[in-house]
Amino acid sequence: MPLDPEELRKMDIKDLYKKLEEYNAELLKYRAESRMGTLKNTSAIRNVRKDIARILTIISEKKRSKKNEKTT
């Protein structure tokens, strides 16, 4: 099930980085399973990559909003 962007926006930026590490580790595991031929759900890699992109987008939004707060 994909991550909900609204739930991600409620999270702290440190928690987002922790979640990003988890998903990167999961992606590495799936890629290794794919290479060995033991991965049953081949769409898992694409789904994890999309979740990573969602997390990075939210992190970018949060950084941008902090930067705008400092300048105003």
Automatic annotation (TrEMBL):
Gene3D superfamilies: 1.10.287.310. The keyword Repressor does not apply. It holds the Pfam family Ribosomal_L29. GO terms for biological process: translation. Keywords: Ribonucleoprotein, Ribosomal protein. One of its GO terms (cellular component) is cytosolic large ribosomal subunit. CDD domains: Ribosomal_L29_HIP. GO terms for molecular function: structural constituent of ribosome. Coiled coil: none annotated. InterPro entries: Ribosomal_protein_uL29, Ribosomal_uL29, Ribosomal_uL29_CS, Ribosomal_uL29_sf. Belongs to the universal ribosomal protein uL29 family. This is Large ribosomal subunit protein uL29.
